[in-house]
């Protein structure tokens, strides 16, 4: 049974075949600015990801190596796509529950906001 999800308005819907990889939480300044907090996502092989309403996805190239996808209608941040890889990071917040996975680690914690603590006991990578 595929995992399903969508943006806030439902214009973009997605399905993922197979089990989800354990997600990570990125605290870098770009992810914080794009989402309003930190970004939690799971890496999905492109062959296992189906997007309905792809015409509503807008892509913002945030660096020479990465682009970020969001819904043009409601602004939901949905994807983080490395340009040279055949995977797409999908927002955990866009997925319907149960996801049958748990957060595995925090990354770019050296850039995290000063208004919160990370005290869940998971591994924390400075970069």
TrEMBL record:
Residues 3-117 form the CENP-V/GFA domain. PROSITE patterns: CENP_V_GFA. The keyword Zinc applies. Gene3D superfamilies: glutathione-dependent formaldehyde- activating enzyme (gfa). Belongs to the Gfa family. SUPFAM superfamilies: Mss4-like. The keyword Metal-binding applies. Transmembrane segments: none annotated. Keywords: Lyase, Metal-binding, Zinc. This is GFA family protein. It comes from the Bacteria. InterPro entries: CENP-V/GFA, Mss4-like_sf. The lineage of its organism: Bacteria, Pseudomonadati, Pseudomonadota, Gammaproteobacteria, Lysobacterales.
């Amino acid at each position: 049974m595929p995992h399903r999800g969508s943006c806030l308005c439902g214009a973009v819907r997605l399905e993922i075949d197979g089990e989800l990889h354990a997600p990570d939480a990125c605290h870098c300044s770009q992810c914080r600015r794009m989402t309003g907090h930190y970004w939690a996502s799971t890496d999905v092989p492109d062959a296992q990801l189906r997007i309905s309403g792809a015409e509503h996805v807008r892509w913002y190239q945030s660096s020479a190596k990465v682009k970020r996808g969001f819904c043009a209608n409601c602004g939901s941040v949905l994807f983080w796509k490395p340009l040279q890889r055949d995977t797409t990071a999908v927002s955990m917040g866009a997925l319907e529950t149960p996801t049958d996975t748990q957060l595995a680690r925090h990354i770019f914690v050296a850039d995290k906001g000063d208004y919160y603590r990370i005290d869940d006991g998971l591994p924390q990578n400075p970069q």
